[in-house]
Amino acid sequence: MPLLEIEQLKKSYALPGGARHTVIDVPWLTINEKSQVALRGESGSGKTTLLNLIAGILKPDEGRVVVDGQEMSALSEPGRDRLRATTIGYIFQTFNLLQGYTCLENVMLGMSFGPGVDKPFAETLLRRVGLGDRLHHRPRQLSTGQQQRVAVARALANRPKLVLADEPTGNLDHNNAREALALIRETCKENGAALLLVSHDREVLGQFKMVFDLARINKALSKETSEESQEAPLP
Hints:
Blueprint: E1 4-14, E2 20-31, E3 36-40, H1 47-55, E4 62-67, E5 70-71, H2 77-87, E6 88-91, H3 103-112, H4 119-128, H5 144-155, E7 162-166, H6 174-190, E8 194-199, H7 202-205, E9 210-213, H8 214-217, H9 219-231
Parallel strand pairs: 3-8, 3-9, 6-7, 7-8
Antiparallel strand pairs: 1-2, 1-4, 4-5
Helix pairs in contact: 3-4, 3-5, 4-5, 5-6
């Protein structure tokens, strides 16, 4: 059984005047356990919306999202929160660290929404990502690359089966981006987690054997691109 299954997934937003704009229209997508998959898409193409639908942060208008055998899209909000906390790790592009808490506290707080706080494991994760000497530093005392490492540790804190990464190298310089990508992939492999990473960076995408193009799997985007092509003047 695939770890993630998407069927006929649709999401739209209201526009001024009452019309609706369809952002996501994905007929089918599956990801197997422990696999590592990249999703290619330009800024504004709906990548983050798709990840938020998978994570249960957003509810779809139509369709199914099944994670580890449970239909995320059919659960109540508390049910989605529980499934997300126990099964999914999310690495946000902007890290979303709590500035008033230390690195260790940020990771342990993430644990509190799942099976429970495991301080030794939180410390182990932070050491694994190279922050063993920064356990009690706050985010503002860290470099951008170090903050990303905290975000990686937090995403793996509840031993998720699926890690979602939203442009995780987008705010990093070239060297830090390469290190962060390698770290994400290695730590997911070590912890037996599948990885779905979205990016528009060709170098990042080139590191993956399996790459989906959002413009191909998202009918809403394909239609939009087709209409733009038809409206464009001939050379």
